[in-house]
Design goal:
259 residues; alpha+beta; 8 helices
């Protein structure tokens, strides 16, 4: 399965509308950090860091941009955390600390770049208000991101990209029975557009396990390209390397393109 990661968190802005804070180089961490040559991000408390962040994506062909009418996307709430934790524990091989989930709803920036996908037995638009209150849907997918001050790259970048923040995919998961409906792509596209509008990002990136050919293919179909490799990034996997993938934001991302 596709997997992605970086080792530190963003310092917390007071609101989601503030620009990215000043940069500092992250300290090397025993839990396999990303080398400073590939990226810099705003430092975060060591106790809030995780070993790695993971992206789990469906192996099917690239779906259409629109989701079924049964699917709704929204920001997480405190009531969603138990289901969010359970889904991650089922799909991700590494447990996340309690701080990971608390920050998802307590930090304005993090909450703004996190989305949950819910599946409804009946399309929300086709039920009465009273029925809709009872049929809240089941959590079937989620995306949680970070905002980095600079894009992932081991090579020179155009100034238009290098000077802008990057949206980094921390976790992207979809329950297997609900894959193939375009939910993962819809989560990514929706959050990408929001990050462009709210933070002026110039790119989106992730780390992918080098043996995960299906995951790498998923990214390539969405115009991501390989920009680096990191040996020993996933120390508990064999092979243990990660492929760094990135995509620049373009006009078509703003217009909303069909894949």
């Amino acid at each position: 399965m596709p997997q992605a990661s970086l080792m530190t968190w963003l310092s917390k802005p007071s609101t989601v509308s503030v620009p990215p804070p000043a940069l500092v180089r992250p300290q090397r961490h025993e839990a396999l950090p990303t080398p400073p040559s590939l990226t810099r991000e705003v430092a975060k408390r060591p106790e809030d860091r995780t070993d790695r962040d993971i992206v789990v994506l469906p192996p099917q062909k690239a779906p259409a941009r629109s989701c079924p009418p049964n699917v709704t996307l929204r920001a997480p709430t405190k009531a969603d955390l138990p289901a969010f934790k359970q889904m991650n524990s089922l799909l991700l091989p590494i447990p996340y600390p309690e701080s990971f989930y608390k920050e998802t709803i307590s930090d304005d920036l993090t909450r703004n770049i996190t989305l949950l996908a819910f599946w409804h037995d009946r399309p929300p638009g086709g039920v009465s208000p009273s029925d809709h209150a009872l049929e809240k849907g089941r959590l079937v997918g989620a995306i949680r991101c970070r905002l980095f001050a600079h894009p992932l790259s081991s090579s020179p970048l155009p100034p238009s990209t290098a000077e802008k923040p990057m949206l980094y995919l921390s976790t992207l998961v979809v329950l297997s029975p609900y894959r193939g409906h375009g939910i993962a792509a819809h989560l990514l596209d929706t959050l990408l557009l929001r990050a462009v509008e709210d933070y002026g990002i110039g790119s989106v990136g992730a780390h992918v396990w080098e043996a995960n050919t299906e995951g790498l293919d998923w990214y390539r179909k969405r115009d991501f390209r390989e920009v680096g490799r990191e040996k020993g990034y996933y120390r508990k996997l064999n092979p243990d390397g990660a492929v760094v993938v990135r995509r620049e934001v373009g006009v078509m991302d703003l217009a909303g393109r069909e894949k």
